[in-house]
Structures are given as structure tokens and as C-alpha cells.
Amino acid sequence: MRTVVCQEPGRLILEERAAPSCGAGEALLRIRRVGVCGTDIHAFGGNQPYFQYPRVLGHELAGEIVAVGDQVDPALIGRNAYVIPYLHCGDCRACRQGRTNCCRHMQVIGVHRDGGMCDSLAVPVEQLVTSETLPLDQLALVECQAIGAHAVRRSGLTEGELAVVAGAGPIGMGVAQLARERRARVVVVDTNPERLAFCRDRLGITDTLNPVEEDVIAALEAISDGELADAVFDATGNPAAMQQGFDLVGHAGRYVLVSIVKADITFHDPDLHRKEMSLLSSRNATREDFDEVCRLMEAGRLPASAMITHRTELDDLPEYMPAWCAPDSGVIKAMIELDSPGYVSAEADNAPDHRQ
Questions:
Q1: Residue range(s) defining the domain that contains residue 213
Q2: pTM of model > 0.90
Q3: Alcohol dehydrogenase-like N-terminal domain location, by residue (predicted)?
Q4: 327 - beta bridge partners?
């Protein structure tokens, strides 16, 4: 099968590998869509924590189940599914508390082990969620939106609160949309005017601020009677911006770090204590978050597909990836399409066709 491998920072290669087969409890997914995430871009650039090379990237995955292993219902064959890419142990303290998103022994597909930038992938069946209604593009965006859903749920955001989202990339846009579903007042902050315009025009997030052009703290004080934000979410991936985010949080407020960077983040301790600020990290997502995103997508409340601005076929990805990583590329969400059958395992070739 075709496989795109990140050999080292800045270098992707297309190679042919043996197609996988299903073990017990697994299903074989013919990959049809792969969303390019900030994690992939940071890994390509050499800035992603928890990462080793070479690695097959890709964890925003959707496709068709074409074969199943022992102990798996064969009725799943032919159904479209998305992947929950977080493989947890089930035994550690975090897992016992239901916080499988931060499992002590976490293995993320496409980060700690090879991912889905390939024709087919064997996945534990419990990590696959099928859908009869959502198209492939939306299925491939569920994971990205679930990150936002988890961050918002972790913040405890409630109706009428002021939520500030720093960073108008796909994750930030997801956070903003999920915060709006909580009936909070949402303000998006970014230095890129095109992305702010996209939030306003395509996502309906009307309150945006550009720190290059205006005083963000003064603007937030003006709309909050001087109280600043109830909750601030950082999705910038920029250490300097992450440190500045502390200043946007009001007294008794919460600061949720959604971004992960290879850097130290510092704060002024007297300010933290004076405000009795809650500082939270947010990692990955749980099945509850995925289910919430699917429910909202099926109800037409998350215009996630609007974020897809660039597309390419798998074969052309090594050519396009460097350009997509450039700051001036205009990419919001890039999508890799694998609509041709490509290479699949023999067991998939011999599987019955259950499509209607």
C-alpha cells in the first residue's frame, strides 16, 4: 500500500509498504480522508513534543471498514467510520477515573505510533465509530472538533460567561464554536486578519480582536465592565502568546491551555493568586466529547466543513506539505483525499461488499 512517511523534520517521502491485516478485535479501515492537523505541521517542522522519527503522520481519519478480525461483528464491513486515535491502557489512575484522554501510557495514532497517511490501517474496533449520516469530510473533522469540546467541557463554561479564544486555527475555531453552544459570549483573538474574517463570515463568530491593531485588554474591559474574561482558551501554539493570555483572565477566572509547545510557560505568581485563577491544561478528548461533536454536526450546528480550504491526493502530499506549513499559505484545514481504491490487504479484497 502507499504510505507517506515523515523521515525527519522537513522531509516527507512516499513509499510502498505491506498492507496490514486484522488481528483479533481489530477492523481494517480503508482510509478515505485525512485531515492535516497542527500536530502534523509541528511534527513536520520538528516542534512536536512526544514525537520520534521516522513516523507515519495522520490522526484525523475517516474511511470505510473493509475487513474485520476475530471477535468483531462482520456487519461493520462496508460502513463509514471515524477513528478515536487515543489508545489508552484502561488500568492507570487516569483511565480508572474515566479520563482516558490523559492515560499514563497513552499511545496516539500518528504521534506515538504510525498513523493514517496510507491506504489502509488496522485499528482496534473500539476506536472506530460508525455513522450512517455524516459524510466523509465531516467524519474526518470530528477529532479536531472534539479537542475543542473537551477544552470547553474542562473549563466549566456556562451561559452568559465571556470566553476568549486566542488563536484562530482549526482548534481555536472548534473551541469557539463549542463555547458558543454553551451560550457564552465568544471573542476570538488572532493576529491574522484573514482568519478573523473567516470566523466572522463563515462561522458566525462576530466578536474578533487583532492585537496588532487594537488593545485587547482595553477592548475586553469595555465589554465586561472591567471584569475581563471568565475563561480564556489558548490555541495559538505560541509560547509568548500563551504567557500573555494570563493577563486576559479576570478574577476567579479560568485559563485553559489547549496548545502544546516545547517550551517553558511562566506567570507572575502574585497576579495568579490575586485573581485566584484556575490554570488548566486540556489534552486530547474522550468518547463523551466525540459524541457531543457528532450530535451537533448531525443537527447542522457545527459548520466544520467550511474550514476545509485546501485538498490534495495522498501521492502529492510530499510536494504540498512544505507550502501548507508556510505562515502565509492561507491554509485553515487541509484535507488529504484517498478516493481511489489504492492498495488493500488480501483479506479486504476477499471481503463481501455490503455497500448499497
A1: 146-281
A2: yes
A3: 23-130
A4: none
